[in-house]
């Protein structure tokens, strides 16, 4: 019997290398300059980055949140001189509806008013493009309207 043809054996392919995971089992190849991206301490690095991510997720939303003016004393002490930018309600709990106004002051700061303990009549009578002026020891708000004359509205609180 004659033997079957065996093609000549070629050299094995070069193994893939990934930057963070080393040679991935490619053996010892001393080609070029080696860059160590963490080596033995890679798991420690991943653990530290994970812990920093969790801490940032816990603390940054509280640091970036805007101050919400919602109590009667805060609204009484508040000084407003700006225009309404947003007006919306938060009715996730139907028993406790939050009426929220976002007012942009003339100096560029934003004030977020939550009128959930106030009578909603004031919230119903103001709209987004209007300007508000309020002194700091009064609940009377001067509302500048475009189609009607300026009106003074009073924020009343529920008993």
From TrEMBL:
<protein>
    <submittedName>
        <fullName>Uncharacterized protein</fullName>
    </submittedName>
</protein>
<keyword id="KW-0472">Membrane</keyword>
<feature type="transmembrane region" description="Helical">
    <location>
        <begin position="45"/>
        <end position="65"/>
    </location>
</feature>
<keyword id="KW-1133">Transmembrane helix</keyword>
<keyword id="KW-0812">Transmembrane</keyword>
């Amino acid at each position: 019997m004659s033997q079957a043809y065996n093609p000549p054996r070629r050299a094995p392919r070069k193994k893939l290398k990934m930057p963070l995971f080393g040679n991935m089992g490619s053996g010892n190849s001393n080609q070029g300059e080696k860059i160590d991206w963490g080596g033995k301490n890679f798991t420690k690095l991943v653990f530290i980055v994970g812990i920093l991510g969790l801490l940032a997720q816990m603390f940054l939303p509280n640091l970036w949140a805007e101050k919400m003016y919602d109590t009667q004393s805060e609204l009484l002490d508040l000084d407003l001189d700006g225009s309404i930018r947003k007006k919306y309600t938060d009715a996730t709990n139907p028993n406790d509806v939050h009426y929220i106004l976002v007012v942009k002051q003339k100096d560029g700061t934003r004030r977020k008013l939550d009128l959930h303990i106030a009578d909603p009549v004031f919230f119903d009578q103001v709209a987004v493009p209007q300007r508000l002026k309020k002194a700091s020891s009064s609940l009377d708000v001067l509302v500048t309207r475009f189609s009607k004359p300026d009106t003074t509205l009073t924020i009343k609180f529920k008993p």
